[in-house]
């Protein structure tokens, strides 16, 4: 007689979610995300001064998340989402939940915190503001299934 030991969080994914999106709703995904940013910042500290490393952290974060959340299209695990960016997959599968709100607010909060820590290089400041706009605007509801400058759009 088999006994059910309950769900296994290491192998189970929430019902109905693609594996591509399921990791975002697991406990610890926010901490892992913040940890990756901190590790990236630490790597930048080896190559640049403290001030420049702090200024490059949100800029590089915004560029990388724009590419991975909005530019790359497709889901290797679920063909229903082959024409969706990662952000669109998240919104369609989990809606505007705490997960999507975290990914929307995190770059803004990071910019505000870093803004209080450094004296900005004017060029990096404007580049970071532009990158912040380009990474936050596509996450807003009115931009769902639209492409910024047509990037990531498949004919």
TrEMBL record:
Q: Which GO terms describe its cellular component?
A: endoplasmic reticulum membrane
Q: Does the keyword Membrane apply?
A: yes
Q: Which InterPro entries match?
A: ORMDL
Q: What is its main location?
A: membrane
Keyword tags = Membrane, Transmembrane, Transmembrane helix
Question: According to its UniProt record, where is this protein located?
Answer: Membrane
Pfam families documented for this protein: ORMDL
Q: How does it sit in the membrane?
A: Multi-pass membrane protein
Signal peptide (residue range)? none
Q: Which residues cross the membrane?
A: 30-48, 54-73, 94-114, 120-137
Q: How is this protein named in the record?
A: Putative membrane protein
């Amino acid at each position: 007689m088999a006994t059910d030991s309950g769900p296994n969080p290491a192998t189970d994914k929430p019902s109905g979610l693609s594996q591509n999106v399921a990791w975002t709703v697991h406990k610890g995904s926010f901490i892992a995300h913040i940890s990756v940013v901190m590790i990236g910042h630490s790597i930048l500290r080896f190559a640049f001064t403290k001030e420049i490393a702090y200024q490059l952290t949100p800029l590089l974060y915004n560029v990388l998340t724009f590419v991975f959340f909005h530019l790359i299209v497709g889901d290797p695990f679920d063909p229903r989402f082959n024409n969706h960016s990662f952000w669109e997959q998240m919104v369609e599968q989990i809606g505007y939940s705490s997960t999507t709100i975290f990914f929307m607010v995190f770059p803004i909060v990071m910019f505000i915190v870093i803004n209080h820590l450094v004296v900005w290089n004017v060029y990096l400041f404007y580049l970071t503001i532009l990158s912040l706009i380009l990474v936050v605007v596509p996450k807003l509801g009115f931009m769902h299934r639209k492409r910024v400058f047509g990037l990531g759009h498949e004919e």
